[in-house]
C-alpha cells in the first residue's frame, strides 16, 4: 500500500494562475514546482504527484489543440507531448517514486464537445494523452504511476460511453507503470473492469464512506485489478464549515484556526479509522491510498501539508 496524492496543490501566497500562465517556462516557475514537490515529500507522500498548479483541462487541451504541435486534429506530435512540471522536476536529485496525473480522455472530450461522442475525435484525444503518458515514463524520473483523472464518469448523467468506447479511450495506455483511473464516484467502476490496460481503480470514500459498499472485492480480484481508496477528505470548505458550526467561530481568514480545523475534523485518528476499514475490506487489493482528491482549493500550502501529514501518521499507525 503506497501513500500518494491526487496532484493539485495550492499556489504560493500572492501567485495566481494568470502568473503561472505567463511564467510557465521561467526559472521562477521551475523553482516553485520543485519547492511544492519537496513539501509533499516532507509531509511523507511516498508516490507524490507533480504539483498540479494549472487547470487540469487547459494544461492538456492548449497543447493538443495547438496546430503548430499537431500531426492531425486533436492529435499532438509525440515529441510535443510533454508536461512542463515534469521537466521542472527532472533537474532534482530525486530517484524516488513519482505519480503523474493526466486528465482523462472523456473529461477532455466532454469539456470540448459535450456528451455526444464521435469515436474518431475521442481516439485522437486518447492517443494524444497516451503520448504524454509514454513520454513521462521515458523521462529521467522514476514514474511508477500514471493516473487518468475522470471526474465526470459516473457523476455526469449526460456522459454515458459504451464499453467499446471505454476500451477505445483507455487501451492506448499500455505503458510500463501502474495505470490508475481516478473516479469521483464508484458507479462506473464495473465498466472499467473490462479495460485490460487499467491496473488500479481509484474511488473517493472519505467524504462518502458508503461508496465502499458499491465495490465487490471478489470482482476486483477476478479481473486482476487493484484499488486506490481515498481516506482523507479534501473538501476543505466542508471541513471548515463543520468546525465553524461546532465552535461558533469563523475560521476563514485565520490560518491558525484553519490548521486547528483540519487537525480536529481530519486528524490522524479519523483518517486511521477510515483506512483501517478499507484495509479490512479490501486487504491485498488495496494498492494506493491518500486524500480523496486534489488540494488546490486549500487556502494555503501549509494547510494542504497538514492534511498530508495527518494522512501519513494514520498510514504509519496502521502499518505499525
Tell me the name of the CATH class.
Alpha Beta
Q: Determine the oligomeric state from the structure.
A: single chain
Q: Write down the Rg.
A: 19 Å
| Beta strands, count | 9
User: How many separate domains?
Assistant: 1
User: Which runs of at least 5 residues are low in confidence (pLDDT < 50)?
Assistant: none
If classified by CATH, what would the architecture be? Alpha-Beta Barrel
Strand order, sheet with most strands: 1-9-8-7-6-5-4
The average pLDDT score comes to 97
CATH topology: TIM Barrel
Strand content: 5-15%
> Percentage of helical residues?
40-55%
Shape: globular
What gap, in angstroms, lies between the N and C termini?
13 Å
Order of helices and strands: EHHHEEHEHHEHEHEHEHHHEH
**Structural class, from secondary structure content?**
alpha/beta
Largest sheet: 7 strands, parallel
Number of helical regions: 13
List the helices and strands and how they pair.
Elements: E1 2-3, H1 17-22, H2 27-43, H3 58-64, E2 70-72, E3 75-76, H4 84-90, E4 97-103, H5 105-113, H6 119-138, E5 142-150, H7 163-170, E6 178-183, H8 189-192, E7 200-204, H9 217-222, E8 226-232, H10 236-247, H11 255-265, H12 268-282, E9 286-291, H13 301-319
Parallel strand pairs: 1-9, 4-5, 5-6, 6-7, 7-8, 8-9
Antiparallel strand pairs: 2-3
Helix pairs in contact: 2-4, 2-13, 5-6, 6-7, 10-11, 11-13, 12-13
Polypeptide structure, described:
This protein has 320 residues and is an alpha/beta fold. The chain has one domain (2-235, 268-298): TIM Barrel (Alpha-Beta Barrel), CATH 3.20.20.210. Helix content is 44%, strand content 15%. It contains 13 helices and nine strands. It has helices spanning 17-22, 27-43, 58-64, 84-90, 105-113, 119-138, 163-170, 189-192, 217-222, 236-247, 255-265, 268-282, 301-319, and strands at 2-3, 70-72, 75-76, 97-103, 142-150, 178-183, 200-204, 226-232, 286-291. The protein has a seven-stranded parallel beta sheet with strand order 1-9-8-7-6-5-4. It has a two-stranded antiparallel ribbon with strand order 2-3. It starts with a strand and ends with a helix. The model has no long low-confidence stretch (mean pLDDT 97).
Amino acid at each position: 500500500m503506497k501513500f500518494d496524492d491526487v496532484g493539485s496543490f495550492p499556489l504560493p501566497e500572492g501567485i495566481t494562475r494568470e502568473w503561472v500562465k505567463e511564467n510557465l517556462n521561467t526559472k521562477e516557475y521551475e523553482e516553485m514546482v520543485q519547492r511544492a514537490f519537496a513539501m509533499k515529500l516532507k509531509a511523507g507522500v511516498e508516490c507524490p504527484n507533480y504539483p498540479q498548479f494549472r487547470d487540469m483541462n487547459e494544461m492538456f487541451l492548449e497543447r493538443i489543440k495547438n496546430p503548430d504541435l499537431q500531426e492531425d486534429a486533436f492529435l499532438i506530435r509525440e515529441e510535443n507531448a510533454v508536461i512542463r512540471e515534469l521537466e521542472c522536476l527532472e533537474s532534482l536529485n530525486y530517484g524516488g517514486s513519482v505519480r503523474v496525473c493526466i486528465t482523462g480522455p472523456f473529461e477532455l472530450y466532454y469539456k470540448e464537445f459535450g456528451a455526444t461522442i464521435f469515436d474518431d475525435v475521442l481516439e485522437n484525444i486518447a492517443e494524444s494523452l497516451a503520448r504524454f503518458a509514454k513520454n513521462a515514463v521515458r523521462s529521467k524520473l522514476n514514474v511508477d504511476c500514471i493516473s487518468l483523472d475522470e471526474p465526470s464518469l459516473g457523476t455526469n448523467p449526460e456522459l454515458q460511453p459504451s464499453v467499446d468506447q471505454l476500451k477505445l479511450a483507455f487501451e492506448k495506455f499500455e505503458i510500463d507503470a501502474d495505470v490508475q483511473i481516478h473516479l469521483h464516484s464508484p458507479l462506473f467502476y464495473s465498466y472499467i473492469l473490462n479495460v485490460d490496460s487499467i491496473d488500479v481503480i481509484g474511488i473517493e470514500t472519505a467524504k462518502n464512506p458508503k461508496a465502499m459498499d458499491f465495490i465487490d472485492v471478489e470482482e476486483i480480484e477476478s479481473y486482476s485489478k487493484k484499488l486506490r481508496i481515498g481516506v482523507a477528505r479534501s473538501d476543505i470548505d466542508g471541513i471548515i464549515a463543520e468546525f465553524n458550526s461546532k465552535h461558533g467561530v469563523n475560521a476563514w481568514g485565520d490560518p491558525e484556526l484553519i490548521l486547528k480545523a483540519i487537525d480536529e475534523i481530519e486528524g490522524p485518528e479519523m483518517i486511521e479509522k477510515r483506512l483501517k476499514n478499507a484495509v479490512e475490506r479490501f486487504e491485498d487489493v488495496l494498492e494506493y491510498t491518500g486524500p480523496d482528491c486534489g488540494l488546490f482549493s486549500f487556502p494555503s500550502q501549509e494547510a494542504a501539508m497538514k492534511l498530508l501529514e495527518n494522512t501519513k501518521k494514520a498510514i504509519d499507525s496502521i502499518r505499525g
